[in-house]
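Quick log. Single chain, no ligands specified.
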Amino acid sequence: MKTILFVFIGGGLGSIFRWWISRLFPFDKSIFPYATLLSNAIASLVLAFVIFQLKEHPKWTSIQPFLIVGFCGGLSTFSTFSYENFQLLQQGQLAIFGFNIFVSLTIGLLAFWFLARL
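-> predicted structure:
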């Protein structure tokens, strides 16, 4: 039951943080979706950090559900990423569409690569 509570609280905090970022950078179909990129990049960094810390500090396993499943799950958003890319395609914004996919994947992978090397 404690784990479910940790996931619930982490998910709520991640979702609130995601909502706050989306208020700072509202999506317009004709410009780059900064909020989703930022949310997913932060979630990737947190996830990578926690995963690599778990290898060195096994005591972190107790907060894994809170951070990985809860916070990162609430913060990251594949569904919004998909929707915004669909909107970009519908608007004919092919360059922004391609750039968004490339940058999003690159930043997510670089977060893991960078933190794996620390």
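Residues 94-117 form the longest helix (24 residues).
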